[in-house]
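Researcher: I'm preparing a figure for a lab meeting and need a structural model of a single chain. I don't have an experimental structure, so a prediction will have to do for now. The sequence is pasted below. Please return the structure as tokens so I can convert it later.
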Amino acid sequence: MSHATLVTAMETPGYGIDNALVFAETNTVTRGGVTYLPGYLATCLCND
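Model: Understood. Here is the structure written out token by token.
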């Protein structure tokens, strides 16, 4: 799994992005500060 734009943003010192979440058709995996989560978990993110 590769996301060139995300990797570039995370490597840019002024942005201060240390960790990122990606919703994809995958199991939960973390690689180099990027956590890949199953897409269905996006439904768990809500503000009440």
